[in-house]
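Example (one chain per record):
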Amino acid sequence: MKTILTHIAAFIAGVITLPVVLFITVKAAPDAIPHLAKVLISRTTSRAHGSAALKTAKTEEERFYFLGAAAKEEFNKGNIGDAKKYATELSTLTPKYTKNWNYGNAIQDSNLVLGRIAIRDGNIEAAKVYLSEEAKSPGSPQMDSFGPNVSLAKDLLEKGETEVVVSYFTACKIFWKMQNGKLDDWIASAKAGNIPDFGANLVY
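Predicted structure:
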């Protein structure tokens, strides 16, 4: 039931915030509109999501746009080998696209998936490094509006790693200006030894 509610929350947030995302994109990176539209359309079409969308990529740049969603999808399915392969490829491509609107998403998604795999393998120290690298994301049209995907942060909180997670939340304030105090609430909850209710930010 909780999973269903989380997905519903993500859908509602997307409907409400999409105009804002497009406005920010037009202002900050107008050349991104065609590519962002393609990504958004793919994410609302079940046949062209994640790995399925990746298979339609015809260029390296198109792979750059779809690898993050594919890596997260495969991890959630338990296909760890594919998840690691896609996240590693994305990490390798990312330095080539520092001026691309998807750069911040790529930093987040590659480190998020590799960090979650590290936790799964029992390597907490490596996971903490990946979260610290994820915190270096400058944001993106989506992240600036919806906020980050905090799945890796949640995993680390569940392992008692509060300090690195609080540092990560603090870093997210740089790009997530529309969070209305949510990050401070998460920080306070984490410092109190609790796991915040992250809602749709476990889905993005």
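Caption: The chain is about 70% helix and 0% strand.
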